[in-house]
Amino acid sequence: MIQKLIDRIVTKDAPVVVGLDPTMAHVPEWVKQEAFSQYGETLEGAAEAIWQYNKAIVDATYDLIPAVKPQIAMYEQYGIPGLIAFKKTVDYCKEHDLIVIGDVKRGDIGSTSAAYANAHLGKVRIGNNICTPFDEDFATVNPYLGTDGIKPFIDACNDNDKGIFVLVKTSNPSSGEFQDRLIDGNPLYEWVGERVNLWGKDSMDGEYSNVGAVVGATYPEMGSLLRKVMPKAYILVPGYGAQGGKASDLAPYFNADGLGAIVNSSRGIIAAYKSDRYAIFGEQNFADASRQATIDMINDINSAIKNQ
Q: What's the average model confidence in pLDDT over 103-132?
């Protein structure tokens, strides 16, 4: 699966992923009102508003980008209707030839981990039928429980041509409370990175592994170190834009071949119309603002990579 992602990155010259992490505060008022007129101010109404919002953004950006990253929590908060909107979003993106990274951050052990892996990357047997539940291409995974929690996902990757991104060094301010703790002289995130490199050898796909890593844009010096620790792991980089990560800091996340990382932006793209920079588009043309913000991000990231 990682080779499919790389092929799309190269074809579109765009090492970026759009995070489809909608909140009702992001959705323009006119979109919400149209949804509420059909379903009322209900969970179903909220889910419909989010679905229409996502659909418009995908329509405006799919030709520019290789991948999207829907964050499942933003949908789960609206219950079953929200999960239906999540699934509709996944399917719609795949219809538009986009790679879908399910930002689900699952992590457990044994049969529970296998069930999570089946839900998001694999299949389930129901009587005589084999069914595919959510069917993302990648899933984000929490490694806190160790190899027992990761192996079922690697098995699902190998059985279904899928991939995972393991949380190694996250972009949030308090990540260091645990991730920066020293163990035998090295920070925990470095130990996790070494384990990701080891796990990745069990699921190679060309020059890179289907076992990737999440390393935040807000810690570029750590990103540079982890790039060396995990030379064959693709790095999913959150934290660009709204969280303070700058393109100029991201060059070390990439390998000499110009590959090896894909940079995420969520609010900076999907809520671009709310920013001063793109306010000229107005609420009615929110998707056009997202398209322009995507173009600007691609140019920004590519400039930083090519000038390193």
A: 95
Mode of pairing for the β-strands spanning 208-215 and 204-205:
antiparallel
Domains of the chain plus CATH, in order, are: 2-306 (3.20.20.70)
3-state secondary structure of 198: helix
**Radius of gyration, alpha carbons of the chain:** 19
> Would you please indicate which residues are annotated as catalytic (active-site) residues?
105
Q: Tally Cβ neighbours within 10 Å of residue 163.
A: 29
- Cβ atoms of 199 and 211 within 8 Å: the answer is yes
Structure tokens at 183: 């163990």
Phi-psi region of 141 (alpha: psi -120 to 50; beta: other; left: phi over 0): beta
Q: Tell me which residue has tokens 């991730």.
A: 179
* Residue 261 burial (CB count, 10 A): 26
Range of weakest confidence among 2-16, 113-127, 185-199, 292-306? 292-306
pTM score above 0.85: yes
| Residue reference for tokens 């990231």 | 301
Give 215's contacts (C-beta < 8 A, 6+ positions apart): 168, 169, 222, 223, 226, 235, 236, 237, 253
